[in-house]
């Protein structure tokens, strides 16, 4: 797969959908803590598919790689500038970094096996991947309203055993999603359904860019109706006060070589 106009190297065109991303996708403290613990006592860390810099540890020396110009431009001033590059061709020598990380990105790589091999090649210690288990996506109530979006995600996200195998082994850690999760991936709104009626919130989730406009229209109409007449709350209202949701979010940690 060739790179798109703004440099995006995966299947999603962040030159088109990346504008405004950071208004909806801010790092969630609980997830950030899990990523940081997984990086252990590393001093240097590589962030692959780094996007706007979510989950980059502030106490470590970070090198960021991101192919999309749109996403590189949204990195805050307190983050290092990202290198224009792709996971499959990392411009570093073997064992350059103490640790490496990749968050919400492996499902967009054009060659997963090559990207994982490259991360392992340039890293001496742990490789940490934040992703979603595609077999668990249908647990989210969104499947009732926009199955096309969930099915798109399920096709794009690699199986967790494929990721662990590509890294030479690893531990899979389930991450419960907090109710007021500040990182607006789809399941982050499990107890705040009104938020997904905002087109900007859906735009910040790449799966929605692959479904037809009529799916968006049907989703807004049916969810809006069910919220207005109480149907959604009758079925799912308990989620509004449920502290965490055991969804598809996982952290894969591959230990040192």
Structure write-up:
This protein has helices spanning about 15, 30-40, 70-75, 110-120, 140-145, 145-155, 160-165, 200-205, 215-230, 230-235, and strands at about 45-50, 60-65, 100-105, 125-130, 170-175, 175-180, 245, 250-255. With about 260 residues, the chain is of the alpha/beta class. The model is unreliable at about 5-10 (pLDDT under 50).
Give the arrangement of secondary structure elements.
Blueprint: H1 14-17, H2 29-39, E1 44-48, E2 61-65, H3 69-73, E3 99-103, H4 112-121, E4 127-132, H5 142-145, H6 147-156, H7 160-166, E5 171-174, E6 177-178, H8 199-203, H9 213-229, H10 231-236, E7 244-245, E8 249-254
Parallel strand pairs: 1-2, 1-3, 3-4
Antiparallel strand pairs: 4-8, 5-8, 6-7
